Amino acid sequence: MSPGQWMAQQQQAGRRLCLVLEGSSDARLPLIASRNLAQCLSVYGGSAVAALAATGPVILLVEQFGEPALVSLLEHPQANWGWLGSLPDTDLGGVIEHWHARMLVGPPGKQALYRFHDNRTLARALACLPVAQRPAYLGPLISVCYWYEDQWCSASNPAPGHYPVPDPAPWLSIPNPQASAILHANILRYLLAEHSEDLAALAEFQDPKVWLAQVLEQARTWQWRGAQQLEFLVVRRLEEATGASVIRWQPLAGEAPGDHFARVFAQWHTLREKHE
Fold first, then answer.
1. Which pTM does this prediction carry?
2. How many CB atoms are located within 10 Å of the residue 261 CB?
């Protein structure tokens, strides 16, 4: 369903439309300029991150489908500028209150922003959540329309309303499909900066990207997820591949991941002391 068809359908059902827009979008200023304060609210305003309100995402009521800035957005969905939603009335305050409760994630002192205003984040959540869990995620929104994987998508909320945040929130356990690629790229950059000679030696007989993918798959199998564990495994495996060390890596029968790492690390430390 195209966004035009979705908007017409929602309007025919007596619903009001809103636009959740990324703060960096070029359409932000013209869309804000044509609305009063009740028709446009900062997503971060009045929250713990209010200092970011001036450049952060906004939520706006949509009255005219042919508004030039809106038409331009809909013609360029690949820019990932946000998404559309429908409401029973013109009250944007309830939507803001709903997302404020879900905006910060993580323990105190280590909190991060949950980017619900990003259509990709919204799409991944809706693709993975059972329909029964949509109300707690979408809150007062009746339906949403968004761009994902080269097509327009829509999803309905079976029971719009105000809900407490579940503990744990199921949408926070959804994996980011880009996380693996980001980790892979970051490790290669680290090796290039800190272990360039060994990396160059490896490249003479094996593609470093293929080699690293195999090492990271080993880390996943062994459940070595910590930064120290990953660094140790990657660097020592690189040394081993270029002939600088030999370690007995395989876990013992029934050995827990933490015990496995501690034993292999101690083994490597002993070997290093013998060679010094």
1. 0.66
2. 20
